[in-house]
Amino acid sequence: MAEKITSREADYSQWYIDLVRSAKLADYSDVRGCMIIRPNGYAIWEKMQAALDRMFKETGHVNAYFPLFIPESFIQKEADHIEGFAPECAVVTHGGGEKLQENLFVRPTSETIIWSSYKKWIQSYRDLPLLINQWANVVRWEMRTRLFLRTTEFLWQEGHTAHATRAEAHEEVMRMINVYKTFAEEYMALPVIMGRKSESEKFAGAEETWCIEAMMQDKKALQAGTSHNLGQNFAKAFDCRFQSKDGELEYVWATSWGVSTRLIGALIMAHSDDKGLVLPPKLATRQVVVIPILRGDKEMVVEHAQNVVDSLTADGISAFMDAGEQNSPGWKFAEYELQGIPLRIELGPRDIDKGVCIVARRDNGEKTTLNLGASLPGELQKLLDTMQKAMYAKALDFRNTNTFEVADFGEFREKIDHGFLVAHWDGTPETEEKIKEETKATIRVLPEDQDLVDRFDMLTPGTCIYSGKPSLRKVIFAKAY
Amino acid sequence: MAEKITSREADYSQWYIDLVRSAKLADYSDVRGCMIIRPNGYAIWEKMQAALDRMFKETGHVNAYFPLFIPESFIQKEADHIEGFAPECAVVTHGGGEKLQENLFVRPTSETIIWSSYKKWIQSYRDLPLLINQWANVVRWEMRTRLFLRTTEFLWQEGHTAHATRAEAHEEVMRMINVYKTFAEEYMALPVIMGRKSESEKFAGAEETWCIEAMMQDKKALQAGTSHNLGQNFAKAFDCRFQSKDGELEYVWATSWGVSTRLIGALIMAHSDDKGLVLPPKLATRQVVVIPILRGDKEMVVEHAQNVVDSLTADGISAFMDAGEQNSPGWKFAEYELQGIPLRIELGPRDIDKGVCIVARRDNGEKTTLNLGASLPGELQKLLDTMQKAMYAKALDFRNTNTFEVADFGEFREKIDHGFLVAHWDGTPETEEKIKEETKATIRVLPEDQDLVDRFDMLTPGTCIYSGKPSLRKVIFAKAY
């Protein structure tokens, strides 16, 4: 068993680190800012990858792989892009024992290396759209790192698409941010607010960045995914033109979109508790642990427990047994709570006599008595579904309870540590910057979710809470990871 | 449609490059020696990954992820390892705009960074075995590159395991080389010879390297996978000890094993022909293309073709239709032959009248008439299975036909361009080196496959074909990729 986890109340940051380490999800490596994703953490990433990859393919995308290295001259071709990324790059200056003629940047993102290929692949409107995704590692030299949330190297997927018109590119941007929203809500049980970023917060090189933002248990915001409309910026930087149906030579329209191993951090921070990890059933590699209570005829108990595992496995539920005698049932309960196994089945000789077993839910500790036999897999599947939905409902309720509309900057200052603040903003980067300087809060998103827009009457003009100038709409401010 | 492919007979190397480019499998990037794996090529890698990953998990392994960067001092901890790998490393000297205090090597392989973690994770025999695999990119600064076969950056998996005894480590080495052999033979339809490498050819830092070697259509050898017994070399380099059951402090025993995107090159070189790619059905993302012959009532023909696609899809066969009118059936036949779709179904109005369709196999061009209706998916599955086996049998026959035993060095010189040569060798690196200098042939493998050992009476001592000194066994020489 692992060392004790600090409680969330005592120290939320320490709780997070303790949990990630105790549950063996990740650890810092001996390389500055780089993490090791341990098997328990990587298993979550594999489940995320499988679901996302399927959703990408269902929306017409294919996977490819582009080089890790980007020539310095490529990064420099798009002005905003170089300004945003060059300072945080790792640079290869030597290879094969010799100094390189041109430095190579380890990719911080792949727009430039990919558009230098698209230029070769795209000649005509018949070559469009090009809908490619890549699963890869990227490197951004971070000063302050935090496991999963911000590390020098991380894993992600980056979609890079090419289109014949601005409208098609916009459609793609929206399609993918909605794929992310669906994934976050249905798989991660994580409610997210979808909308645009302000100019200051958008991607370096994009015309528009769309995002999904989630609330963590400390009421801070976490950006969980982004989808960028790159306009013709990269096509112009790499001179990528195509012959349109009308025979005109036009620049190609681009999008890019990505989510990363940061999502694992979001998952932990949104749902887990002082006992350890709480995993939504859809992202749990192991969904049910069966713990035989070894009293009386031990062999008989283990045999029944094995039968339960077998019947669940046959029904597509991922189950395993811990029949080890060196640890007590209590130790096992704690260990699998730490690991976030969604359901625990306790099975002792008296339960077997009665033809029942006790099932405990990881999210709320609720215990249910279920009959052994043919109906058990179906009942457990129902419990898993219920738990998945309950986790989402709980997180949504938490976010709603901690989202406040504020009318003036005094109220803003008072409430900024207590959640998401809905407020009018005059639309200028200057006001945004001043609010950030004074409160550390940033504009997280200009929401487009209809329910939220309606609830807070977001699109009716008003007065900026900071400058008193006219405001076209309300936005969401929060402190963020 | 793509440009014409050079024939294998005219120029085998050019044929390979033409094929890889025409079938849009991969392309060189603007970064020296780095390739772009295009969607058609990456789809093969995804099929390979899925099968291998399943086999790794079935043998008890889990996935994790370790950092891309390795501090220079780590690489230097194992003497043979640094000698083998340092000269071909890419080196990061700057990060975040500043010169680094210690250079970081981009991983050429991950033993050192992984064993620096294992040292922290392993205290007792209870922590063993540790059975971890990683899917990752690696970089080796290659002077001469060839798409898939030898590139500066490539994708691979690397297993790194830790064991309590030498015997357990050896068992793991053998288990994994056999997993690779099974994968090569059953999925890639590629016969391989399993055995040990000579001292000169083994992995830098290993006690023993086991490998699988395959023959390409130009009769050259290609190393398709390796499994290394690392002894206690890395445990000693990183001072990784564990408390044994007897309470003794002992060094941990290690293995590592890997296959890479090189396998895609092997697959192409072993099976493909002058028309393009030939893919074994088990590694084809798209197994059947249905081409409606658009004469007479076109809508009716397309509807029937769509029914065929639907019935195959429902049965788990991956099928698609090309009903486009801009290209002729002949153009489509050529295009999907180039792409290596295993089966092609031709369906015209007269076929529909007769209730049949024509099925063409990609590997040998054989055409079969099959009845439309409920029996079709089953019949096609049979054809796919038959094709998978036929491809293996053909490749095995080719290898057997081109494997010769040679009795002296004169015969060796004569036949070395014609296949694998079975010959006695005195076991010294000096003789190995001289043969290499004079003929460019290397010892590919000291075979352990029983059938091959028996066929050539490999383990009976004799006389070295080069030095005339005593030889303990026969080995296999060949020119290699």
From TrEMBL, chains A, B:
UniProt keyword list: Aminoacyl-tRNA synthetase, ATP-binding, Cytoplasm, Ligase, Nucleotide-binding, Protein biosynthesis
Gene Ontology terms, MF aspect: ATP binding; proline-tRNA ligase activity
GO terms for biological process, alphabetical: prolyl-tRNA aminoacylation
Enzyme class of the recorded protein, top EC level: ligase
Catalysed reactions, semicolon-separated: tRNA(Pro) + L-proline + ATP = L-prolyl-tRNA(Pro) + AMP + diphosphate
Residues of the signal peptide: none
GO CC terms in record: aminoacyl-tRNA synthetase multienzyme complex; cytoplasm
Domain Aminoacyl-transfer RNA synthetases class-II family profile: 38-280
Location(s), subcellular: Cytoplasm
NCBIfam families: proS_fam_I
Domain comment as written in the entry: Consists of three domains: the N-terminal catalytic domain, the anticodon-binding domain and the C-terminal extension.
Family of this protein: Belongs to the class-II aminoacyl-tRNA synthetase family. ProS type 3 subfamily.
HAMAP family assigned to the protein according to its UniProt record, in alphabetical order: Pro_tRNA_synth_type3
Name under which the protein is recorded: Proline--tRNA ligase
